[in-house]
Design brief:
Elements: H1 2-10, H2 12-19, H3 22-53, H4 60-71, H5 77-94, H6 105-120, E1 122-124, E2 127-129, H7 138-157, H8 170-177, H9 179-199, H10 204-220, H11 222-237, H12 242-246, H13 251-266, H14 277-284, H15 295-302, H16 306-320, H17 325-330, H18 340-359, H19 376-383, H20 388-433, E3 447-450, E4 453-455, E5 472-478, H21 483-498, E6 502-508, E7 521-524, H22 532-542, E8 545-548, H23 551-559, H24 561-572
Parallel strand pairs: 5-6, 5-7, 7-8
Antiparallel strand pairs: 1-2, 3-4
């Protein structure tokens, strides 16, 4: 087992390189920016669709109004993602552009929108047909964004522009400078659209869907689902945010199949697609990557080591809402050979069972896009239309995950018990000689306070006597704004307790570009630490302190408000 871990660890630089690919990051961040629209539309679609599950027929006027809101939000998500993806990709490219050469991020948004419309819309009987502007047009979103930003980069680096006299105001000159890249971007999309319609007879959006449909069909199979939810925890196990690496290329299918399932239900047919966004969230990633929903309960109620009991109590609530970083880094699970097999096998088993329930036992495929933080069993019941079989399915998943995790957790628990017994003996010896048990500056993750209970304790940082002349504002970034909120809350609580003038906010990496200039310091959670060099160029330019944290250290700070304050003061010194 250790040899397997060593081989995986050797390839960690490759995994980090993949996760830092600017195109994958642009797709991920583009969806993150559009997520409020997706969640907003989901509220209205639930209100419109769920009454039908219970045999309640809404008035036609109300139903039409609710579906109109959905159509004008989720129905244009492809257009919105084209704009947000282009903007994020332009921002990433600007970090490596030659000095004095900058891609206009507002202009690429406009060009990407026009390009997307050319690639995804058509006219039927003389009327504007917007049927491909939603999830069916997502692949066109990526193509239009990638073409646009690269065309801008090409023109700007080679100075292909209209130069105005220096007397012309800068805002007007910028508009003229963008004429050529804007025109070339849109013309490129127009040529692609022309070739598609003349040689294949369909809009470009449908060509891409036809070409990639065998891939999506393969991903919808038992084997395809198993591979997807094998790769996601494999990446996470070596400290790379797996969903950010694997899911961007599947986003079209994940959201498109969700909408397809809903339409099948409305037409009286069985929603049979398994590969959907919430199927991944609530089945393959039940309780977070690695299907860890049941793990804190195993720690609390069935394990004897004080460390696992403490970690279980600390992580149980976050994990219920799919924020499992406290568990991953405090247990730890990441790069822990005892958890390698259950962490990557449980998600695979879950999705295979889910596929069987949908295709063989008649359970509905997931029809709604619910917030990813919805507790998995509840989300499964909601997103499948309150079927009794979905309740049975949720209970079965918890039982299966328990049976997979328990033997490995028990083995790890025995090791920790032996270590704790050894440490307790050493502590007694050290106490007799007057020596310190905990080395200076090191962290004691779990320390017993009484039989059957434990708390997380730390060695104090050296007291920071520096006076703060002004308020320090801190932005904490993680992958999905989950654990970052925990540390931000700890900092706010610590500031109130100590009287130190520090304010803190939380965010997801990728959504920070517009707001980062408002902060004095940015703290990177361990799961986004691989982006350190990417963001450092921005923080250096803006004069912001960039702080990188490690796994156990980060989780510890979320649980110790005063320690979190000392940490920030020490780093700012």
């Amino acid at each position: 087992m250790n040899k397997i871990i060593e081989q995986i660890e050797k390839r960690q630089p490759l995994f980090q390189k993949i996760s830092r690919n600017i195109y994958l990051m642009a797709v991920k961040d583009g969806f993150l920016n559009a997520m409020p629209v997706i969640l907003f539309s989901s509220i209205f679609i639930l209100i419109a669709a769920l009454p039908e599950v219970f045999g309640v027929v809404l008035p036609v006027v109300l139903s039409d109004w609710l579906w109109k809101i959905y159509d004008y939000s989720m129905g244009i998500i492809g257009l919105l993602v084209a704009a947000t993806t282009a903007r994020n990709l332009a921002g990433s490219m600007n970090r490596s552009m030659p000095k004095g050469k900058v891609i206009n991020e507002t202009s690429v948004i406009l060009a990407a929108i026009v390009s997307f419309l050319l690639l995804s819309t058509t006219k039927a009987d003389g009327a504007f047909d917007a049927s491909l502007m939603g999830t069916e047009g997502l692949l066109s979103s990526y193509v239009s964004a990638f073409i646009t930003v690269n065309m801008y980069k090409f023109c700007i680096i080679r100075d292909i522009t209209i130069k105005m006299p220096k007397e012309v105001p800068g805002s007007i000159s910028q508009n003229f400078r963008d004429v050529f890249p804007f025109s070339f971007s849109v013309l490129a999309a127009a040529v692609i659209d022309l070739l598609s319609r003349n040689f294949i007879g369909v809009p470009f959006a449908q060509v891409i869907a036809a070409v990639l449909s065998p891939l999506f069909e393969g991903a919808e199979s038992y084997f395809g689902l198993a591979i997807i939810w094998l790769l996601i925890p494999m990446f996470w196990f070596v400290g790379v945010h797996g969903p950010s690496v694997v899911k961007p290329g599947l986003s079209s299918a994940l959201y498109g199949n969700t909408e397809a399932n809903l339409q099948l239900m409305r037409n009286g047919e069985h929603p049979h697609y398994a590969l959907t966004e919430n199927f991944g969230n609530f089945v393959g990633e039940l309780g977070g990557t690695g299907a860890t929903f049941i793990v804190p309960f195993i720690f609390i109620f069935l394990m004897k080591s004080k460390q696992l009991k403490a970690v279980g109590r600390t992580s149980v609530v976050p994990v219920m809402f799919a924020v499992n970083e406290p568990l991953l880094f405090a247990a730890p699970i990441v790069l822990n050979p005892y958890f390698f097999i259950p962490f990557i096998i449980s998600p695979v088993v879950n999705v295979l069972i889910g596929k069987f329930f949908i295709n063989v036992l008649g359970m509905n495929g997931f029809m709604y896009v619910l917030p990813w933080a919805t507790p998995g069993p509840i989300g499964t019941v909601l997103a499948t239309g309150f079927q009794p079989i979905s309740i049975v399915f949720s209970i079965l998943l918890l039982a299966v995950d328990f049976s997979i995790y328990y033997p490995f957790v028990k083995a790890y628990d025995r090791v920790l018990l032996a270590e704790e017994a050894e440490n307790a003996e050493k502590a007694r010896e050290e106490e007799l000689t007057g020596a310190s048990v905990v080395p200076e500056g090191e962290v004691a993750l779990a320390a017993a306070t009484s039989e059957g209970s434990a708390t997380v304790t730390t060695q104090e940082y050296p007291a920071n006597k520096k006076k703060i002349d002004k308020e320090i504002s801190v932005l904490v970034l993680c992958a999905g704004a989950g654990t970052s909120a925990m540390l931000a809350n700890a900092l706010e609580e610590g500031a109130e307790e100590t009287g130190v003038s520090i304010t803190a906010s939380a965010g997801a990496y990728g959504s920070h570009y517009e707001i980062m200039s408002d902060f004095d310091a940015i703290v990177l959670a361990p799961q986004v630490a691989s982006y350190y060099e990417d963001i450092k160029s921005d923080t250096d330019r803006l004069g912001i302190k960039l702080i990188r944290t490690k796994g156990a250290q980060y989780i510890e700070l979320t649980q110790n408000p005063k320690e979190a304050i000392e940490f920030i003061l020490k780093e700012m010194d």
